[in-house]
Structures are given as structure tokens and as C-alpha cells.
Design brief:
The complex is a heterodimer of chains A (about 100) and B (about 170). Chain A contains 3 helices and no strands. By secondary structure, chain A is mainly α. In chain A, helix 1 runs antiparallel to helix 2 and helix 2 packs antiparallel against helix 3. The radius of gyration of chain A is 18 Å and the shape is elongated. The termini of chain A are far apart. Chain B is mainly α and about 170 residues long. Chain B contains 7 helices and no strands. Classes of the chains: A mainly alpha (about 100), B mainly alpha (about 170). At the A-B interface, helix 1, helix 2 and helix 3 of A face helix 1, helix 2, helix 3, helix 4 and helix 6 of B.
Chain lengths: ~100, ~170
């Protein structure tokens, strides 16, 4: 259990989330994959915060994780409000059918 | 006796780490592979729990508590409500038609990053890792949030307030 293993798990989770966010058609699934990517980054930051130089001990990585979680909460609240608004107006949830700006 | 106990506990930690890793990657794969959107949301909740367990393994107990309170308590409920409020909940979890080339590019990205992370040299910064452990991280985080990081702290509070008001305005019936 060292820094490399945590970073490898983080890279795997980030890649899975990136694939889902790029290929899925359902808007809520895209949001779920973005949350997965946020979690992978948080895991990497917490791992860096533990395995750092002992002469420079501080908890800046934890502070970054707290700010990322706060911004993710704001993003998911606004994003799901936009999803519900789109669903009320256009009656669809697939991102391939939400193409008003292309026409 | 003491070193033997330390070796045993580190072996136990290693086993726990690998169990949590397998569970985390499998549940993350479930998010993108399961057919039902509701089931993939449940799989995402399992992935959040495993991330909280990773935080506990990393001596970040406060982050584990925050993860469980915010992600599992709030964000998962929001996602499940959004799935339930939009038409039929067994709607298929479908992909675009160009997902093969995306899988290829993301796979290349994943292999490059794993190769880099396996070959990173961390020997000199982890040799003395026991001194990094904190007894109580909550005190330190509270002091840091109100001294060095007080401006981002206030800005984030304004951001949260603005986004919640924006969400109410968007959802409101009128």
C-alpha cells in the first residue's frame, strides 16, 4: 500500500468516468460519470497529502478535497435543475436530441 | 513482538486495500456497463462508499465523514430523484455510435497514466511516512480553513448559496 497503488486506482476510476462521460446518451448518467471523475481526483489528492515529504507536513491536499467536494455539490444541484428544466420543456433526456443550438 | 504485530497489521491493511480496490473498480465499471440507469446509480453509491474507505486508509477521517455525508447523503439522493422524475426509470443506459474510438483513446490515456504512475520514484518521500500521521486532522483542517484559506472558504460559501438560489429559480413553476 504505497502512493503508486493509490494513483493507479485513481487513474482507473478516472478513465472509466471519462469513457462514460464521453459516450453515454442519458444526461443523468453523464453527471454520474463526472462525479466518478471528481472522486478519482479526490483520491489522488488525499494520497499525495499522506505520502509527502515529512519535512513539509501540512494538510493542503485535504483542503483541496473539501473545496472540490463543495464545488461538486454546487455543480450537481445546478446541473440537475437544468436537466429537469430541459425535461419539462423538451420532454427528452437524451443528449443527442437536445440540439436546438445546431439548428 | 511489536515488529511482528506491525507486519501482521500491515499485511491486513494490504488485504483490505486490495479488496476495496477490486470493489471500487468493479462498481465503477457497473456504472457504465449496467443496462438500467437506476442500477448504475446504485453501483455509483457503492463506488462512493469504497472511496470513503480509501480515505480512512489514508488517515483522512474527516474527509471520509464528509464523503459519506455529502456524496452518499445528498448527491446520490439528488441523482436518484432526477432519475425517478424523468419518464420511465428502466430507460436504457445506451451509448453513442462512436464509442469504439472513444474507448480506444481513453484506453491509451489509461495505459499511459498507469505506466507513468508505476514508474514514478517515490522512495525518498515515503521512507519516513510514519511521522506524517496525524492524531486528529479535524483541528488542523479547521485552523487551515480559517487562516490560510479563509478567502476561498468564503467564496465557496457564496458559490453554494448562488447555485442553490439558481436551482430554485430554474425549477420553479410559473
Amino acid at each position: 500500500m504505497n502512493l503508486n497503488e493509490f494513483l493507479i486506482i485513481s487513474a482507473l476510476l478516472f478513465s472509466i468516468g471519462l469513457y462514460g462521460a464521453l459516450t453515454k446518451k442519458h444526461l443523468v448518467v453523464v453527471f454520474m460519470c463526472i462525479e466518478l471523475m471528481f472522486n478519482a481526483v479526490n483520491l489522488a489528492l488525499a494520497a499525495f497529502s499522506k505520502y509527502q515529504n515529512p519535512d513539509l507536513v501540512n494538510l493542503n491536499g485535504h483542503i483541496f478535497v473539501i473545496f472540490i467536494i463543495a464545488v461538486a455539490a454546487a455543480e450537481i444541484a445546478l446541473g440537475l435543475a437544468i436537466v429537469m428544466s430541459i425535461y419539462k420543456n423538451k420532454n427528452t433526456i437524451f443528449i443527442t436530441e437536445i440540439d436546438s443550438l445546431k439548428k | 513482538m511489536n515488529s511482528e504485530l506491525g507486519i501482521q497489521s500491515s499485511l491486513l491493511l494490504q488485504i483490505v486495500f486490495w479488496i476495496i480496490s477490486c470493489l471500487s473498480v468493479i462498481s465503477a465499471l457497473g456504472v457504465i456497463l449496467l443496462k438500467s440507469v437506476f442500477r448504475s446509480a446504485l453501483s455509483l453509491i457503492i463506488c462512493f462508499v469504497t472511496i470513503a474507505a480509501f480515505f480512512i486508509l489514508l488517515n483522512a477521517e474527516f474527509l471520509a465523514a464528509v464523503q459519506i455525508l455529502i456524496y452518499i447523503g445528498a448527491i446520490s439522493v439528488l441523482l436518484i430523484f432526477a432519475i425517478l422524475f424523468t419518464k420511465d426509470i428502466d430507460i436504457q443506459n445506451v451509448s453513442h455510435k462512436f464509442n469504439l474510438i472513444t474507448a480506444f483513446i481513453v484506453g491509451i490515456f489509461c495505459f499511459i497514466s498507469i505506466y507513468v504512475f508505476m514508474n514514478i520514484n517515490v522512495v525518498d518521500i515515503t521512507k519516513n511516512q510514519e511521522s506524517v500521521l496525524y492524531g486528529n486532522t479535524v483541528n488542523e483542517i479547521g485552523k487551515l480553513l480559517l487562516s490560510n484559506f479563509v478567502l476561498p472558504f468564503e467564496v465557496v460559501s457564496v458559490l453554494l448559496l448562488a447555485s442553490l438560489i439558481g436551482a430554485f429559480v430554474l425549477i420553479r413553476e410559473d
